[in-house]
Amino acid sequence: MSQIRSIKGTHDILPKESINWQRLEQIMHQVCRQFGYREIRTPIFEETRLFTRSVGEETDIVSKEMYSWEDKDGSSLTLRPELTASVVRSYIQHNLGNHAPSQRLYYLGPLFRRERPQKGRQRQFHQFGVEAFGSLHPEQDAEIIALAWHILSVCGLIANTKLHLNSIGSSDCRSAYKDALKDFIRPNLMQFSETSQRRFETNPLRILDTKADHEKKLLNGAPIVSDYFTDDDKIHFDSVQQFLNAMDIPFSLNPKLVRGLDYYSRTIFEFSSSALGAQDALLGGGRYDQLVETLGGKPTPAIGFAAGMERILIALESIEKTKSDPNLDIYFICLEDDGLPVALSLCQQLRNAGRNVVMDSLRRSIKAQLREANKSGAGHVLILGNDEIESNTIIMKDLKKGEQMTLQQSSLIEKL
Ligand code: HAM
Q1: Does domain 330-415 match CATH 3.40.50.800?
Q2: Element (H, E) at 394
Q3: Distance 280 CA to ligand 1 centre (A)
Q4: Neighbouring residues of 157: CB distance < 8 A, sequence distance ≥ 6
Q5: Which ligand 1 atom is the nearest neighbour of the CA of 83?
Q6: Ligand 1: which residue has its CA nearest to atom 31?
Q7: How open is the CA angle 99-100-102, to the nearest 5 degrees?
Q8: Kind of pairing, strands 265-273 and 76-79?
Q9: Residues of the chain with CATH 3.40.50.800
Q10: Ligand 1 binding pocket includes 56 (Cβ within 6 Å)
Q11: Which residues does residue 196 pair with via DSSP β-bridges, in sequence order?
Q12: pLDDT value, residue 324
C-alpha cells in the first residue's frame, strides 16, 4: 500500500515545534488577561450561509476557498474559513450583549481555506483573534490595535513590523465613494482583469487591492475614500490616530488598504512583517459595525483582528532560532525490572512535588540511557540499580556540575 501522507496545505506540528506554539499561546492568554478579554471557543464547522452572509459572496474566501459539503439532511455546512462570523453568531445566539454592554472576547484555533499553499499560506492554519462588541468609540479601536501591538512587542517582533492604517468610512459615505470610484474606472474598465471587472459590479473597493502593476497604474489618481467621509467618520478616524500617537504606537496611513472580507466599516488595519516573504501580513482586522445586525442581532458596533499563528512563528524563527528546551528537571534510570514499582512511585512523587521527570522505558544499557539523559537537557539523573534497591537509596548525578552522591530514597524530594 502506498504511504498515507497529510493533505496538501496541512501540516503536522511536531514536538520540536509544539513547544514554540505553547509559548506563543501562553503569551496570547496572558496579554488577553491583561486587557480584560475572555476566551470563547466555537465549533469548527457552521452553516455555510453564516459565511456567505458575513464575509460576502463575492470575496475570494467564499467564492473559491471554502470547504463546504452537503450534510445527510441536505443542509450545507462549511469548515470555518475565519472566526469573526462564528463569534458574532455565538454572541447573538447566547444574548451575550444582554449580559454586559461591552464584551471583550478572544479565540485561538484552526481555520480552513482552500488557497494555493506556499510559505505562510496553508489550507489548515491557525489564528489568534480578538473581538470587542458594544463600543462605537475610537478608544475601542485604539485598545484593539494596542493589544495587537502589545502581543507583537512581547514576541519581540515590533522592530520588523509595520502598522498600516486606513478608514473606509461608514456605510453612509461608502456608496457615494463607490460611485465615484466606478466613474473613474469605467472608461478603462476593459483594460482591467476579468476578476477586477467582476468586482467592478460586486465590490469595486476590492479593485484597489490589485497586485497587478498595470492595474495599479490605471488606478493612479483614483478618488480616495477620505474625501467622502461624513463629519463623524472624520472625527472618528482622527481620534483613532490621536490615541495611537498618545500610546506611542507608530503607524502609516495607507489609503489603498482594503481588506478581503466584506463586513468592514471605518477603521481597518494590518500589521506586516519584513521577516516574512510574499505573505507578509501578520495580522489584520477592523471595525464591523453592521455585522451583528446583518446576522439577525440588535445593532451592535464591534471591532477585532486576527493574527496568523504560523506567520508569527515564521517571523520569530527568522529573527532568532527559538530554542526547543523541554525544561526537563530529572532523567530517571532504573536498571532492574524489580525496581520498577519503586522507580515509578518515586517519579510520581517528584512530579507531585512539581518537578518535570522522564523515566527511560526502553530498558537499555546504562551507557545508552546516560547518553540520552545528557541529550535531554535534564539537570539531574537519578539511577536505581540493584544495590540501591536493596538499601532503599538512589544515586543522584548533577549533570551540570558532574557531581554524584548516594541518597536515602526518603530524603530525595527534600534534597531536590
Ligand atoms: P484575514 O486577514 O483573512 O482576517 O486573516 C487574518 C490573518 O490570518 C492574516 O493576516 C494572516 O496572518 C492569517 N492567514 C490568513 N489566511 C491564511 C492562510 N491561508 N495561511 C496562513 N495564515 C493565514 C480575518 O480572518 C478576519 N476574521 C480578522 C478580523 C477579526 N477582523 C475583525 N475581527
Answers
A1: yes
A2: strand 393-398
A3: 11
A4: 273, 275, 282, 312, 315, 316, 319
A5: 27
A6: 285
A7: 140
A8: unpaired
A9: 330-415
A10: no
A11: none
A12: 42
Which pTM was predicted? 0.88
* CA 176 – CA 186 distance, rounded (Å): 15
Q: Which fold has domain 15-170+230-318?
A: BirA Bifunctional Protein; domain 2 (3.30.930)
Per-residue pLDDT reduced to its tens digit, 366-416: 999 999 999 888 999 999 999 999 999 999 999 989 899 999 999 988 887
**Secondary structure of 299-319 in the HEC alphabet?**
CCCEEEEEEEHHHHHHHHHHH
With contact defined as beta carbons under 8 Å apart, do 145 and 246 qualify?
A: no
| CB of residue 84 inside a 6 A radius of ligand 1 | yes
Please name the helix (run of DSSP H) or strand (run of DSSP E) that holds residue 198, with its range, or none. helix 194-202
**φ, ψ (nearest 5 deg) of residue 127:** -125, 150
Q: Which three cell numbers stand for residue 143?
A: 485598545
* Cell 473613474, located at residue: 184
The closest-lying atom of ligand 1 relative to the alpha carbon of residue 282 is 12
388 CB under 6 A from ligand 1? Answer: no
Return residue ranges of the chain for CATH 3.30.930.10: 15-170+230-318
End-to-end CA gap in the chain: 51
> Is residue 289 in contact with ligand 1, taking CB distance under 6 Å?
no
The DSSP secondary structure of 1-15, one letter per residue, reads -PPP-PPTT-----H
